[in-house]
Amino acid sequence: MNASRISCSLRRLVAGGGGASLALLPFAVQAQAPAPPGPMPRVEITGTHIPRATAETAAAVITLNRNDIERSGKTTVAELLQTLAVDNQGSVPSSFGGGFASGASGISLRGLGAASTLVLLNGRRVAPYGLADDGQKMFSDLNIIPADAVERIDVLKDGASAIYGSDAIAGVVNVILRRDFHGTTLRASFGQSRERDGNDGVASLTWGGGDLEADRYNVLASLEYGRRGAIWNRERAGRGHIGRGDLRDWGFSAQESLGGTGAITASNTAGSAINGNVRNPATLDYDNRGNLAGAGFTRTFPGAACAGFTSHPQGDPGGGCLIDAAQRYNQIQPSQERINFFGRATFQATPRVQAYAELNLYRSVSASSSTPSAVSGAVGYPGGPVNSAAVALGPAHPDNPYFGTAARLRYMAADIDPRMSQIDSDFVRLLAGAKATLGPWEVDTALLFSQNQVSNERSGYPQRDVAFALLNPSPANVAAASANPAYAALAPGSVWRIAENAALNPPALYAALAPARTNDARSRIAQADLRASRQLAELPGGALGVAIGADFRHESAELAPTPGTERGNVIGLGYSAYKGSRNVAALYGEVLAPVHPALELSAALRADRYTDAGDSYTPKFGVKWTPLRTFALRGTYARGFRAPSTAENGVGGLAAYSTAVDPLRCSLGVEIACNPAQVAIITSPNPALSPEKSRSVNVGMVWDPYRRTTVSLDLWEIKRKNDINQEQSDAAILAGRIARDPSGATRPGDPGPIAAVLASYVNSARTQVRGADLDLRQRFDFGPGSGEASMDARWTHLFKWQRTEQDGSMRDYAGTHGNCDVTNCIGTPDDRVNFRLSWERAAWRVSANVNYRGAIKNTLFKNDPAACASHFADGNPAPVDCELPSFTTVDLSLRWKPAPRIEVFGSAQNIFDQLAPLDPLTYGATAYNPLDHAGAVGRFFTAGVRYTF
């Protein structure tokens, strides 16, 4: 059977490395030549359960094989996937140690969120990460995938709910692990930044034995160990604004900086100082404790002078003691230690029956650090906000400059040490199944169990009742704290000495004040499935194929609240908890009809029944047409859905932080209220939530004008309705669902700052995302002895990313810094490009990888009437022209095979040491966008060796 040029080029892409940019393009046409004798081997393709003679379907798929992973220079699958142009807003970077889902990494196709991208292992589900992103969105942790065990990764770029069910609205990432391996491979690598930190060591062992044809069995085992060191903001002091909270050198004021620097910002308003800012009980103005001429001081404290705590440049007009807390205590990258195991055993019981089993085990321990806690932070819990703004030094507290009168305190408790989080994650996936040929049917059935368990231990967080009692031991405060056994065991009259006198505190006081606290999370899937496929009558273009299947699964998830947060008693830590379970049953069918040698039609229909979310019916239709030997058209139409997660419709709630302006106070002339500020946001689950529903359309072409050239262009649109979102913080503010702190008023008529925003999960009206993907691949053969070069490029452009609220208001985030209510506020770039140029000759292979992010307007959405989201000290929009410039990095990778069994490899990430642009809005990193993580780390080198027995 002769294949067209398009079909041949596609097979070369799949077999020879193809590329992250272009593979599995769904176009092939069979010529009219007679078929050769014997059946043609059929392969399983992501997005369909009908095995095919060729790898092309009507859906656009990116395939990354082992060569692509190696040429990228990345050491983990997560890093590689998050550089893809199709990844956008809502992805979860492993570098965000301060997030709700720290310790994990997730991909967000089309910017629709990690919860709308379904991740599969060998075509079946995995248990989601135990901690939900933003406390809401359940997603699969990409870190569980052992890179050395990967055969290929398929990224299906359109909706696939008709085949796989819920969560596939934006697409599917299917990781295909090795299934038949012979021999033993040892691999070791070590990486380090130019600053000699962030050490990244990886060692792996892969072994396989037995031949299915000769021995009737094959066993594969792959073990991988990795250890990555932390990178601290303070270690990048020479990289300009990177990791800095104090941005005065870049045109910002201390009041507009990204971190709590200790500035006294206005009347009755001050940041938390490392030596303490205190409020004059008479005038309500703040002074620093180190100020020997403080207005109304009845005691002075020479030891509290700012110079005794920091050499950081001063200059606050209000007299505060300035430090850069974010630079001193925060991290660019948390440390992580991980171990991965994958094993597969296959037994050919009879020529028609094959049994198999798979075991995945993963364990990681990650540790992150953030700034010491401030004693005055507001937190929330399901009962409402808890405001600690009234915290004060008591009249008799020995460190009170207004001795004799209680004085409010703004103190960054560095004597407690930074807030630390250690996350232990354990993942297990066990699969046992069988494949059989029963007459004309090919049957596959399996039992699956998968679980992720997470333990999160936190330290450095003060207990509110104990802190209040130790700073101001009034009868009411002491009575409230006495229920705590550790506080009750302290000597009567104990006080917390602060700043210069903190060394006087006994260890028992800190044990009562800020004990370590742990909470656990667990998610679990148990599933049974059965699928069968066969060929029916011959059509003009080939055999009519059908597939049917059914599956049943039980899902459960539970997150216990961190002790104390259920009553808002942990300063600086909001409440997050959920618990729920459900059963899901599904039936589906699929048909593939090659009605003509140049025309193929496909259709699928799935019915799902959720015990908590009702029924869902999702169809999908596809067509591919090849009018010319070198040109083809393709298209798909699909419906999709995402059932509410346990965190969204179960039992529990979320109290976290967001950024928002205060329009009321801003209109009253309180300038500081006109800039985005951190506010607590309390969100309640909603059992009445409806599933999200989607409609996606993909139309594309592929053109093979020359033997070594392939070009494809796809236009796509996804419309999603009933979006499950946390209610917008600014919408809740405008609706008046807020709690304020009246004691923070600066003038008559000032209602005081917002302490918390009260919201719930809601079904928004709809989201519409529209874009285009352009893929280009070119190979060059320079003749005998000169090697071969290849070039491939991927460009994804967003025309629109528009969300419509319940009130009809619309916000288009494409090309802007919104949506800042989700996933560390990384923005929604409307252009992302991947470009690779490779050359291979004999034992050598060299690749250059270019990753580009387009410019981002620093607005919360297009045409935002509030205009720029950030401003310089002189009032001008920030950054310059209210825009984050585009960012480009170049990575190099090298492979050398001095002998058939030995391979030496290395890479240099961000080879030109590009600096990430200044980003004053995101909270996922300090002064740079998490998308530009490589520009914060700087140049990074990796070298390794692989030996095959």
Automatic annotation (TrEMBL):
Q: Identify its protein family.
A: Belongs to the TonB-dependent receptor family.
Instruction: Domain (TonB-dependent receptor plug): give its ranges.
Output: 55-172
Read off the Pfam families from this record. Plug, TonB_dep_Rec_b-barrel
Q: What is this protein called?
A: TonB-dependent receptor
What membrane topology does the annotation report for this chain? Multi-pass membrane protein
Keywords (A to Z) from UniProt: Cell outer membrane, Membrane, Receptor, Signal, TonB box, Transmembrane, Transmembrane beta strand, Transport
Q: Which CDD domains match?
A: ligand_gated_channel
The residue range of the signal peptide is 1-31
